[in-house]
Amino acid sequence: MEALRLEGLGKRYGRKPILEKINLSVRPGEVYALAGPNGSGKTTLIRLVTGLAFPSEGRALLLGEDVHQTPQARRHLGAVVEAPAAFYPYLTGRENLRMRAYLAGVKEEGRITEVLARLRLLAVADQKVGSYSLGQRQRLGLAAAILHRPRVLVLDEPTSGLDPEGVELVHGLLQELAREGVAVLLSTHHLQEVSAYAHKVGILGGGRLLDEVVLEGREVFRLEAHPLEGALALLKTLPQVASARMQGGAILFEGSPEVVLQALLKEGYRVQALGPQRFDLMAYYQERVKHA
Ligand SMILES: Nc1ncnc2c1ncn2[C@@H]1O[C@H](COP(=O)(O)OP(=O)(O)OP(=O)(O)O)[C@@H](O)[C@H]1O
């Protein structure tokens, strides 16, 4: 079953539509990154999914239960929506987590130490949160979100305000959690960073989900051939080629390089270069948003 499923989700403020007909799903163990320009509705979507905002249409299901109809649906949810997350400044990090653990019904004290260690906060665990840096508070927010071992984790820009080490730490943690079976939905402006491990990227624009890019198992090849236009047209006719487009004097395609090479040689094309190419998510995103 999908861990998280949005069905025709929409939100209007007054008459202004902010989001319309958003359909997406995240499976257990999958990392889904939401990207989009400022104001495209990423935070609004995350607020809807976590139950902090009410949809004007559609619904959000957490492990099959409607977030807005069934309050218990959120027991499987961990979230960091506001940055930095709200904590009692006159209590220590450990005391804040102890309070969260009590509210979430987590009884083992060892779990608090475990998440503090996982977020590299043990050294400051017994200091008042009021004295924490922004990055430390950000990491404490994540520690609190995973305390009760949620099966779905929803995070609004989890790496904003973090130093490079903190960014690495959070990305590493999210990958680990996904491997443990947690479904992760996060919003980000840092596509290059998440493209290393996100399974899917959803691109929001103009209140709609413009595109979903599947990154898992994606293999792209770069081809230089002469004449290039004809080669592109030929590739587009091959059933073994899933996609092909021109980029900077070469063709980028997804599909079988062996079939492509054979077809080109058979038709008398001159093949100058053919090899694997890392999928350029940033270029794809810019192109997609430009034509939105
Ligand atoms: N409470 C509200 N009332 C009216 N409009 C709102 C409200 N909250 C958000 N909006 C509008 O909804 C749109 C989407 O905002 P949102 O914060 O979801 O975008 P975002 O993609 O998260 O942006 P950013 O990348 O800057 O964080 C914006 O035009 C914003 O002004």
TrEMBL record:
GO terms for molecular function: ATP binding; ATP hydrolysis activity. Residues 4-231 form the ABC transporter domain. Gene3D superfamilies: P-loop containing nucleotide triphosphate hydrolases. It comes from the Bacteria. Keywords: ATP-binding, Nucleotide-binding, Transport. The keyword ATP-binding applies. PROSITE patterns: ABC_TRANSPORTER_1 (PS00211), ABC_TRANSPORTER_2 (PS50893). Belongs to the ABC transporter superfamily. This is ABC transporter ATP-binding protein.
